[in-house]
Amino acid sequence: MYKRILVPLEHSAYDEAILEHVRALATHCKASVILIHVADGWAARNIHQLDLRESEEIQADRAYLEGIAAGLERDGFEADAILASGDPVREIAAAATREGCDLIAMSTHGHRFFSDLFYGSVAESLRHRCTIPILLVRGSKMGKTAEYRAVS
Hints:
Blueprint: E1 4-8, H1 15-29, E2 32-39, H2 42-46, H3 56-74, E3 79-85, H4 88-98, E4 103-108, H5 114-119, H6 122-129, E5 134-138, E6 147-151
Parallel strand pairs: 1-2, 1-4, 2-3, 4-5
Antiparallel strand pairs: 5-6
Helix pairs in contact: 4-6
């Protein structure tokens, strides 16, 4: 069914929810997993233009991604890690196309109306930008899964 699953990670407890689901789905489908984290702080957005060195935050993000990818590989999954910088929606959509992914699987915070208006929603924006299915799993600050739904 799915061959390449793109998994955007936040480097937070919310990631546990989607990783749990992706492990089961990738096992069932024999799919490879591509992890992506989009660093969007000032240094990350300007690292190439200003020829900046990687900040401690970016280094920590890279180590986090590589650690999760290594754990997936130890468990028998084919996994790659991408550390991007800039606008999360644009970078995730571009990675999905470039990597030939046929599913984006991500956790959500479950914001409602005012929070989404104020903070925006990466998941909602991706839904309008991508043509491949998106699996949304509601995570929690404590890292436990609450619910999931598929969006296309």
